[in-house]
Batch of 2 targets.
Target 1
Amino acid sequence: MEKFDVIVVGGGPAGLAVAYPLAKAGVKVAVIERGNFSGSKNVMGGVLYRQPTEEVFGEFWKEAPVERPVIEQNYWVLTKDAALKGGFRSQRFGIEPYNCFTVFRARFDKWMAEKTLQAGALIITETVVEDVLRKDGRICGVRTGRPEGDLACDVVVAADGVNSLLAKDAGLKPDWKANEAAVAVKEIISLPAEEIEKRFGLNPGEGATIELYGDATSCLMGTAFIYTNRDSLSVGVGAVCSDLLEANISPNDMLEHLKAHPAVAPLIAGGEVREYLAHLIPEGGFDKMPPLYTDGMVVVGDAAGMVNSLHREGSNLATTSGKCAAEAILRALEWKDFSAKSLARYEQLLRDSYVLRDMEKYRRAPRFFETHPELFTLYPEIGQYAGEVFLSVDGVSKKQKQWQIIRHVLGRRPIWKLASDAWAAWRGLY
Amino acid sequence: MLQIVVCMKQVPDTTQVRIDPETNTLIREGVPSIINPFDVHAIEEAARIKERYGAEVTLLCQGPPTAVAELQKGLSFAADRAILLTDSAMRGSDTLATSYILSTAIKRIWAENGLDLVLCGKQTIDGDTAQVGPGIGTRLSLSQLTYVDKVVEIDAEKRRIQVRRRLEGATAIIDAPMPALLTILKEANTPRYASLPALIKSLRTQPAVWNAADLELDAEQMGLNGSPTSVRRIFAPPERTGGEIIPGGMEAPERAAAAVVEKILSSGAVE
């Protein structure tokens, strides 16, 4: 049985962020990917932030396949026939050093894997890791589904995504429950570049994003998005699995509902659907994260439940967690100590970074959203009423209109409820 | 030991290829490449012959430098070495030029190591011509055994091979002298899932690279210059519209049948 220093299971943003710096440092590292290339099984909405990836791969935008730098971010709350819109645009996001880009994971991860290969890592594709190997209770390798498929190593990196078999095999993570994951679906819809720029008010090459709530997710707990790629749009929607089950709505119905909305339909009109993708997103938050290390193994990225859905961040956390893991592993290799105690440095580095701080900040968010479904139903409707009353000219004075709105709000939600919602929002999100 | 050469091609994964409706060209951007699926069966057949009789298997691929990945995957099927034929002068070669390039390379392998069998897939999935295999066989005057779904027996002593060919409406058992060219059908075998050590070994192997100068190829016989055929246009066949459905066949079959007869008569198809 061949032995490596480090075996990374999963060739996504987390796994490659571990493997690339290790390979560059001369560590004998293998990445095992189940798809036929890195990225082939990976899906995200499509926004990649520059800073975390630059920390690992340098000035990637100069050579990697990115679509458009995002200069404008919009937030829409939808009801059946209205949209409350907010947004921010800065031309400074369109020049170096950039803030974020739209990308296709399938192409971007392939590029990262190519860099990792050139740095000296072995990239083994079309191979599934089915279990960890143990010796005296410590993890010391992996078992793949191939004949003679065992490999030994000092450290296993579980970067095998939201449904991490490895974290389960290592006894770190129980099976997830339906309220701890969302299912998201998206379509890539082709449109000519000039048409995209016209519809979204962009200069050539610039990108924009829209996050949508309320009716956009058929009023389920979740979000929807429209992102501009070079010559296509990524249009998707996701909701928590338990909500979908309860409402008996399929993710595809939800997506069709979004695409038919009168504020959305004109943006995608005439476009041809060229791809359909779906994926699970961990939504359990900080409290459902598994232990991040054990003797001979660390858990990174989605496998560790690192998603900050409020800020649509997952790949960032994955990449930074990979970078921290690589740093901890390098020191463990130096000391030749692969015990949990030695690998605890990984968690320390994560605590010092934004990753665990952000996860902890929003630890109450899942519970807050779960117990406040009115955020996706009642409040958008109130917003629509207020907008329609205040913006129509009908001989009623503005002062009267204000009172009319206040009376309407109180009629739909008593004042103590409003106060408790506000308090819960403060506690849940601040 | 038998000397086997397997020809393989890197092709776009056609399950992911689309045709640009305006320009009528294949959109290859971002489409992953794979080993031509028929060639996978040829590589597997070579591996099985190697296991039955002992053989040295050489993989031969004409294509871009990125085809290294496909050659490495092929190597994990118990092949012994891989050669990539790559040169910008070879680009645009049609089947005539490709068979010239491949047969020139095989001639060189033949001179160095001897030759018993050349295995090809039945056809590629991007060109669909099934001409390159027979082209090689003709240029090298090999026994020509196409559409093989079974290698029945090989007699290395007498240098003879017996195969089963699947023809339209018949199968034929053919006995022929070696060296022979076989084109392999998908039905011949189920490709293996290579062992992990074999896969890792192949990933660490860099194929040999031969260019046009190495093979002293004639520039007039390859690339666009050496290709008398060219693709004028590629287009997706128009989507077939469904036939007309005449309802009521369950409730009132007589009326439905009458409606069908009426349709036929009014179409003028029968007098």
Target 2
Amino acid sequence: MALDSKIPDGPLESKWTKYKSSVKLVNPANKRKLDVLVIGTGLAGASAAASLAELGYKVKAFCFQDSPRRAHSIAAQGGINSAKNYKNDGDSVHRLFYDTIKGGDFRAREANVHRLAEVSVDIIDQCVAQGVPFAREYGGLLDNRSFGGAQVSRTFYARGQTGQQLLIGAYQALERQIGLGNVEMYSRHEMVEVVTIDGKARGIICRNLITGKLERFFGHAVVLATGGYGNVFFLSTNAMGSNVTAAWRAHRNGAYFANPCYTQIHPTCIPVTGDYQSKLTLMSESLRNDGRVWVPKAKGDKRKPQDIPEEERDYYLERKYPSFGNLAPRDIASRAAKEACDDGRGVGASGLAVYLDFADSIKRLGKEKVEERYGNLFDMYKHITNENPYETPMRIYPAVHYTMGGLWVDYNLMTSVPGLYATGECNFSDHGANRLGASALMQGLADGYFVLPYTIGNYLADEIFTKAIPTDHPAFVEAEKTAQERYDKLLSIQGTRTVDDFHKELGKIIWDYCGMARSAEGLTKARQMVRKLRDEFWKDVKVTGGLHEFNVDLDKANRVADFLELGELMIIDALDRNESCGGHFRVEYQDDGEAKRDDENYAYVAAWEFTGLEGDPVLHKEELKYENIKLAVRSYK
Amino acid sequence: MKFNLKIWRQKDANAQGKLVDYKIDNVSEDMSLLEMMDVLNDQLVRKGEEPVAFDHDCREGICGMCSMYINGRAHGPVKASTTCQLYMRNFTDGETITIEPFRAGAFPIVRDLAVTRSAFDRIIAAGGFVSVSTGQAQDANNTPIGKEEADKAMDAAACIGCGACAAACPNASAMLFVSAKVAHLSLLPQGQVERKERALAMINQMDEEGFGSCTNIGACEAECPKEISLENIARLNREYLWATVAK
């Protein structure tokens, strides 16, 4: 199948406006007859489910957590971007668009990103109307701060809880629709198969995580809003439950997976302390507004940070990137930290950390102001490390945080399977090879509140004569059988190694060979390692308990099985891309440590088609056409 | 460090549960309590026993999913902390740690330490929102909100819906949870139109779910990981009274 991104004609600035005024509509009486399934209730899912229900569609929403309010969007701390230009500092829709394209190292679609920048303005209005308590100035107007990769202040925030507050806004909108009977909510349900009939997505199979029963649900359309796949690394800043299963099941059923090698390593996380470590905690990038990153100039300098005089410190971000300094984009800041540590100048017991120092800011602003800005982050840091960042610099190290890759979608956010949509982090569309800070919340809400409600109508308008398909249809029976057999198999192996054994080993392979620095040699080796590990998993994994019960071990095994397949695809994608761009850094392609893009040969989206696990997946290329901006070397110097 | 653990095991909602003893050794003081549970579960699985089921997700103290009642306290001994933000250095070497689920009639047990807190969702569905559909908003800066009010609203909105308040309360009252939402929205201009209906509907739903009444004990505030203030309950009582009288 040829990839058609379905980008509307016309000038960039008017594509979305023109699309909205010419898109097919569904009348209210017909909306009541159309079922939409929304999987995931983070920002993208909750906002979509609520907005679609407000429009009159019959919505069923699903999440694996005990409540839709728990989705991992809550963990986002720093903020949400919007081109409001309330600061009069030169911001505009075009500038947000440009910053996002540039931040993504010129590997995102112009039309999608421009639309994102346009609707960013509406998101803030909507959230404020819902009662989201954004930070305000003394005059009562909204406050902003700056974030990495931008020279304007366009980030709105709610203390260090921006994601939580935005999600509560979307969750409350969703609960309102549940109360009105417009949404049926299924919590503790995990989607394990997509059902397709005559080439269209028509439903899903879920595991009811409490009873363990497999359940069938019909929908005229299915929306995946299931987040990213960062947990393939085992250690990441994702929640423990974050997984790729829904997206991967869709991929196995025909949805192309795009740019899986684009993963974001966030520069400011709390370093690993031991092999029992279960996850990594992010310290918001907003800290880099007032914190200064440094390491000792001398290798192996084990003095206390306070004892190292100013002239013996290397503020390497300020030195290397004077115009952006500590606010250099994430991929660049992460690689610079790795470089410093590889050079033997890392700090802390493991030597895998750099300092993030607030001493100057405390001197300049006073402790109170710093506390007001970052109080809860400082508390969190102290909770975890038992060190007081008001007195001693934080130790930070990069960790996997976000995945730019995801299911391939067209301008309508539809995957390569008709009727199957992907929104938020689980699609690939807006961040190219690197996401800027405070843009994930923006994209999740843009997709759910303001894009999907229009674009899904364009598809559903042709579905008004499709009657609900009974779930005893052979396609449902078949899909449930696939899921059932997989669970039976997992329970029948009764091998010797735990699910976490495999997950940790996979994570280490991906981190070592497909993490911050990648090489053809390493990737080739890693691919074989992952394949071997996957074979061992299916021969030797030990899963306890039974199917028809609340069984966390089984659920984890089911997710890790999919990570073992995704991991290989990431490696294949990283091998295919013989260039460095954004989060994808191939050591063979660099200029003095800076990523070297190859626009002539690699200005495309790599969309992979699943063809079984034996051979290679099929690559479909979507050429990226830049008609409005000039491709340039991404410089933050 | 080493610990004796007494952990509540219960197969499902209807089964009889009991405290089971476990011993754990070689615990690092930098481990979180949940990582200690991971290690225990790893050992159980290797022995072919079923791991202890417990709820957890973000492990950053913000999602509200973790919910253990540790040594008689919701979220354990550290003030202003969720279960996932407890570290073994918060306990004494050799100590016996008793771990139970959050207990309240309205939080039925799913298995072991995991409970169902959907009652909270239904309380929000009854009125914990501003009725503004997507697309109906005016420009965000059209309604200035004083910093002080905005900060107070934010204080209340910081609730993560974990249920520690109800678990800590001898009456299993959900007043702190309900009051935080009512306060958050009634402090803001956006929440004014539905203010009365909201207080009445949420209280009504809270009662229907079987949560107990508030007798001003204050355990909820003491155990709240986000330090939601009792003042909110006073505000809720005022809102409720006002709404009832106005009706």
